[in-house]
Structure to design on (109 residues):
C-alpha cells in the first residue's frame, strides 16, 4: 500500500510540475521580461538563438558605424567651423542651419 501511494504520488507530482523560464532582455533605458511555460530552457535557448544573434549583430554594426562616423569627423573644431562657413557662403546651408550646426559643434567640443 505504501509503495502504491508513493508511486501514485510520484506520478501526480510529476504531472503537476511545470517548468517556468524567465527570459530577461536588457537594452539602453529598458528591460523586458518574458515568461515561457511551454518549452524547456535548453529548447527555448535554441529557439531564441537566431533572433537574439541578429539583434546582437545589428547592435555591433550600429556601434561600429558610430565609431566610424566619429573617426571620419575632422579633429579640429576650427576646421569644421571653416567648412560650415564656406557651405554658408556658397549657399549650401541656410543661416538657421549654420547656426544650429555651429552650436552643436561647439557643444560637442
Amino acid at each position: 500500500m505504501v509503495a502504491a501511494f508513493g508511486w501514485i504520488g510520484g506520478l501526480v507530482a510529476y504531472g503537476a510540475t511545470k517548468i517556468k523560464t524567465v527570459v530577461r532582455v536588457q537594452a539602453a533605458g529598458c528591460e523586458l521580461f518574458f515568461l515561457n511555460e511551454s518549452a524547456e530552457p535548453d529548447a527555448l535557448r535554441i529557439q531564441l538563438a537566431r533572433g537574439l544573434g541578429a539583434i546582437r549583430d545589428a547592435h555591433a554594426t550600429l556601434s561600429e558605424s558610430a565609431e566610424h562616423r566619429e573617426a571620419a569627423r575632422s579633429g579640429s573644431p576650427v576646421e569644421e567651423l571653416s567648412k560650415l562657413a564656406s557651405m554658408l557662403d556658397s549657399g549650401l546651408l541656410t543661416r538657421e542651419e549654420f547656426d544650429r550646426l555651429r552650436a552643436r559643434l561647439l557643444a560637442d567640443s
About this structure: The chain has four helices and two strands. Strands lie at 21-27, 30-36. The mean pLDDT is 77.
